[in-house]
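On clarity, I found the account of how folds are encoded harder to follow than it need be. Since the whole study asks how a given chain folds, the encoding of that fold should be made plain. For illustration, here is how one protein appears when written out as sequence plus structure tokens:
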Amino acid sequence: MRLFLLIIFVTFIFSGISAAQETETDQKFLPVKFSVYVPEKLRKPENFELGLRGSTAPLSWEKDLLMKDTDRDGWWEAIVNLPVPGYAEYKYIMNGTEWEGLKVNRFYYQSENFLPGVTDTLGSVNNTTAGNYKSLSFTKNEIESDIRIMEKMLFALHPGIYKYSDSVSISAAFNEAVSTLPDKLSLRDAYLLFSKLALSVKCGHTHTNFFNQNEMIKTLVLNGKDKLPFTLRYIENKLTVEHNLSGNNKIKRGSIIAAVNGIPADSVIKTLKTYFRGDGNNEAQKFSFININGNGEFETFDVFFPLLFPPVNGAYILEVINPGEKEKTETSVRSVSRAERAERMSANNIAVTNSYDDLWEFRLTENKTAYLKLGTFVTWKMQMNWQEFLTNAFTTIIDSGITSLILDIRGNEGGSDEAAEMISYFLLNKPSFANKFRSASRYNKIPEALTAYLSSWDNSFRDLTREVDPGKGEYYFRKGSPDRVVMLEQNPEAFTGRTYLLTDGSNSSGTFLLTNFLKSNELVVQVGEKTGGNRTGINGGRIIFATLPGTLIEFDIPVYTQLPLSDSSDEGWSPDVESKQTYEDFLKGEDTVLKKAMQLIKELR
């Protein structure tokens, strides 16, 4: 079976810089005084010691830099020489063993024009964040340097940079960004700028990844108390309130948001889409981001909406149309943090997904039908044995004489390819073609001038000479990636009934590859909405984490691209039976797409 898996998914396994860049020998350092107040109740025992640990030399996560309270006033201090510009994450540790009780690291940033200093209280939120960092901004020269470095990285490393555009168009986007720079730019505006520039290559895996940003950016840009106090659904092209957590009874379940702070909702969505990622000219994934379910650390809408349309004095003024009404009602709601919204959801007994395991479900229903919901392929974060879960599910399906399977992957972007591979094998009930792509990279070795800015889960991305061969033009072909379509033998133990695959625009990575294989070989009936991804092949595999040296904003660069072995269209997979959630069914608490699949099953009996 493993050879089969490798063949199907082998295509998708997970000159100097600008003169503004200083060389290592030119690096400047400045002494930084770390001052932290230790409440009296924490100054125990009598031989109490306080250490400082951190991410940037001379700090270390393994060894204490001892602090001192020489005048015994409760303020402990240490002087640390840190680079300029420079960034460090840090925490305090008591008596060499007991970390202060904060969920996230503290952070410190300094540059030639920004020297905030450090004043903290042990065990409390970062005092510095609440004050000095509000004035953090970057000069025009600092931003321009980062723009040019990002441009060089994309042209040197991105495997699919010319899939949907050309060098002239991409360079024009970067030149325009430089030409319109103001004298100063805030961190929030810098994040928006680089988020948009990352989309110039039209790659769904190239973006300013929320999860990979440092604690400073997460705190100051992503995790503010600036979110809408709702969960939202995008139904029939309308922003629809699912759960109202604002305490404002003028807003109901099913209220349609017609305007925000005087801006029509259609204009809001149009602007947001220019910051949402997707592959090629397929916009399905962009639409899938116009939702808030309140689960997890970040959601795309929750990040970009308040950056582009911030609350005014901590509130949003809304025009809403309530269910059964035609007239608009104007009202206001206080903005919340993502954590506050989650707390309100729990307090109102609204399901909050706290575990990746909760996103998988299997059950038998009526009419010899099984329902298998796979809401994520991030299997490495699961507590359960997911392979055993799938094996048991398909064993039950076959042993129970099930004739129809509903495989629901809506809301699942992807993750580990192994889950997609395993499902494909369970459904391989006839000889089939492997995915019709060849895997290629843009480089075989990272250019020396870029190495300092790049990292990943491991260092294998830095030197690909053992896994790629020189190809034609700008590509290096991955060894073992077939240059022709390969036929696969059927699995004699595969499910032989009819499978209904429920899809939507979020299916853009591992779930797109799963859909691509199953649809290409007519192994499923696709029901629902068009997928994300792109039938010309997506970019992915290993991901490079590229960090811009001035702003410290991270963006992802995929290592491999998929080159189609035959003519392919610049679009996702359209369903055999189109079905979208209706407003009427939403108000009744019914799933339109699932209901449609059940109807199709009944009609065949």
